[in-house]
Amino acid sequence: MTISVAPPLTSAPPQFDLEPQAHVIASDAEAIETATTLAAEFAAGAALRDRDRILPAAELDRFSKSGLWGITIPKAYGGAGVSWVTLTEVIKLISAADPSIGQIPQNHLAAVDVIRSTASEEQKKLWFGRVLAGYRLGNAFSEAKSKHVGAFETTLTPDGDGYRVKGEKFYATGALFAHYIHIGAVDPAGKVNLAIVPRDAEGLTIIDNWSSFGQRTTASGNVHIDNVRVGAEGVIPAYLGGENPSTNGAVSQIIQAAVDAGIARGTIEDTIKFVRNNVRPWIDSGQEHGYEDVFTIAQIGDLKIKLHAAEALLEKAGRAVDAIVEQPTEEGVTTAAVAVAEAKVLTTEIAILATNKLHELGGTRSTLGQYNLDRHWRNARTHTLHDPVRWKFYHVGNHALNGVSPPRHPWS
């Protein structure tokens, strides 16, 4: 594999542990406790990492070695098999501290769910074992040049006892920090598979050219796949998760919603701190302190209520996903898809509202570079562009009015 760095982004590829030895988390409670501890650590350097685009390689080693990247692996394969309610709380906690770090495992977790739903027993044992050991899967799924997000031009071609993969990817969140890259590729029958290859595979080039103003340290740049060899053990029939009822689409979406809820939570916490410590009272308020302003108090109340509403729908969605893990049915998958769509709407709205209100309530002082509080708005505006919310309204309404189920794919 080749890693190409496009100045003036990072000056060198990130260095991380290539032979990890992760702790194996045993329960939901341990997962929450571990995430709470890590979130406090990650929050301390979040503003600096964003400002200087310091890629969080060391933090990701801490994150995955903690065992949190393996908590959805079923108990039958050695994992904790935590609930999706717990998983979303973990992502919220980490994203409230640093949403770039919170977003990076999204595609890893989605791939783990695809393996659970569609892979052979031999493949499950292989890949679940590697994930529990601390190996990270990085995304090479979406393409920037195809007709739409679900149209794939990357090909998977039989080659002896294995396959060859060829194509180009973008929005490759996590690939730069991954031990293995899972590539979305179309086989000769037109079916989308995941082709999992080692990060050092010949013909694989990861380019760090992510230049977005938000989620700056996800390094979600390009991956070039030039006739890369993949063994049969690395080809996962992901298309089966769409052809049959599965958790796959809901899982992809609920993690995105959890990141947005985390952004909102972290922003509201920072807003309260800033108002308490830095805001002067408005001239007409008649108060001694900015935090005594009745309009500011009411706005903080409004933010808290809307955050709690979004989190409640997210928890409801998590329970709906939990209900279809073991026995996915058409009805159950529809219920989960609608619940996740509703949560995605409210988590998007509160993330954007909270990041706007931070500066409204914090005043001009809150825009100063020394605080770097604008990172919250940049992160919310960038991450909420995943899977447009206008289509969530449509799918929820179409189901309620016409009984039409949302489509089964990773973006719905």
Automatic annotation (TrEMBL):
Pfam families tied to this protein: Acyl-CoA_dh_2 (PF08028), Acyl-CoA_dh_M (PF02770), Acyl-CoA_dh_N (PF02771)
Residues covered by the Acyl-CoA oxidase/dehydrogenase middle domain: 147-228
Subcellular location, record wording: Cytoplasm
GO molecular function: oxidoreductase activity
Pathway it works in: Sulfur metabolism; dibenzothiophene degradation
Oxidoreductase keyword on record: yes
Protein name (Swiss-Prot/TrEMBL): Dibenzothiophene monooxygenase
